[in-house]
Amino acid sequence: MALIPTHRPRRNRKSEVIRNMVQETTLSVHDFIYPVFLIEGENKTIEVTSMPGIQRFTADRLLDEIGQCVDLGIKSFAPFPSIDDRLKDRLAQESHNPDGLYTRTIAQIKKAFPDVVIMSDVAMDPYSSDGHDGIVDPDSGEILNDATLEVLGQMALAQARAGADIIGPSDMMDGRVAWIRDVLDRNAFSHVSIMSYTAKYASAFYGPFRDALGSAPKKGDKKSYQMNPANRREALRELVLDEQEGADMVMIKPALSYLDVIREVRNHTQLPVTAYNVSGEYAMVKAAAQNGWVDGERTMMEVLMSIKRAGADAILTYFAKEAAQVLRRG
Ligand SMILES: NCc1[nH]cc(CCC(=O)O)c1CC(=O)O
Ligand SMILES: [Mg+2]
């Protein structure tokens, strides 16, 4: 005789209203931080070939783009600069030029949109002739941790002076959160936050980003500072250090292949947890959608929801604008 089920979870899925009533995770436009690419010049946009739908903007065009995003409810932006090769050197000196492309544009954005939050990027790679996040020892090829801290501090200070609300060190040098906090505090920027890239992995998913900025390492890889994708406990060690050093928010990067790390970190901290849905994760969805192999819109929303469900409070994502349009439509 067939047994009749006494427990029927399907009852909670029987209509859209009930499904919405019991939904555990929600996605909102407030969750999004939009990474945007900046180029020198006027009235120009250049598409990033490996990221369909994503452009590099001159400052004037970026202001238009930010205006459109603000109308959609996106209020947080993470700009990244594409720097002319002639301005790059081994010490990334352009990174703390108060009249440089990056600092100038941050000031312009804050002037045009005072309520918008700018999370600025602190790492040497966009300005480094070596394409590394730290200073390369010319003899040994080693990445010099403590000498790099000096540059990172100057970079963070220049960005704070330009009006950045949140400093985002993405470099993975040891001790940089404490170093930057100290520099900010000693220069009357104690109100400026630090969102640390706490667990940033040496990932193949950064490829399209490096195309966008021309920032790929000239020699070697980033494995002596970015984390081994095989490690989860190590993320908790980085978390403890960033908490002690004074981070206001922590980040996991990439997101999609690291949902377990997001959850682990969520379970071990009271700080806000963010995740970076990186360029390669974006490109992957776009490529499959362009081939008609997945439904691009549904896949995008599922990816973003999964990052939220894993425990992220906010998501850096190139999908921000498109997802905001979907959310608006309801
Ligand atoms: N400071 C490095 C940096 N800043 C942002 C990204 C990647 C972001 C993305 O892929 O979307 C990277 C990774 C790297 O090149 O090592
Ligand atoms: Mg660290």
Automatic annotation (TrEMBL):
<feature type="active site" description="Schiff-base intermediate with substrate">
    <location>
        <position position="253"/>
    </location>
</feature>
<dbReference type="InterPro" id="IPR001731">
    <property type="entry name" value="ALAD"/>
</dbReference>
<feature type="binding site">
    <location>
        <position position="238"/>
    </location>
    <ligand>
        <name>Mg(2+)</name>
    </ligand>
</feature>
<protein>
    <recommendedName>
        <fullName>Delta-aminolevulinic acid dehydratase</fullName>
        <ecNumber>4.2.1.24</ecNumber>
    </recommendedName>
</protein>
<dbReference type="GO" id="GO:0006782">
    <property type="term" value="P:protoporphyrinogen IX biosynthetic process"/>
</dbReference>
<comment type="subunit">
    <text>Homooctamer.</text>
</comment>
<keyword id="KW-0479">Metal-binding</keyword>
<dbReference type="InterPro" id="IPR013785">
    <property type="entry name" value="Aldolase_TIM"/>
</dbReference>
<dbReference type="Pfam" id="PF00490">
    <property type="entry name" value="ALAD"/>
</dbReference>
<keyword id="KW-0456">Lyase</keyword>
<comment type="pathway">
    <text>Porphyrin-containing compound metabolism; protoporphyrin-IX biosynthesis; coproporphyrinogen-III from 5-aminolevulinate: step 1/4.</text>
</comment>
<keyword id="KW-0627">Porphyrin biosynthesis</keyword>
<comment type="similarity">
    <text>Belongs to the ALAD family.</text>
</comment>
<dbReference type="GO" id="GO:0008270">
    <property type="term" value="F:zinc ion binding"/>
</dbReference>
<dbReference type="InterPro" id="IPR030656">
    <property type="entry name" value="ALAD_AS"/>
</dbReference>
<dbReference type="GO" id="GO:0004655">
    <property type="term" value="F:porphobilinogen synthase activity"/>
</dbReference>
<feature type="active site" description="Schiff-base intermediate with substrate">
    <location>
        <position position="200"/>
    </location>
</feature>
<dbReference type="GO" id="GO:0005829">
    <property type="term" value="C:cytosol"/>
</dbReference>
<keyword id="KW-0460">Magnesium</keyword>
<keyword id="KW-0350">Heme biosynthesis</keyword>
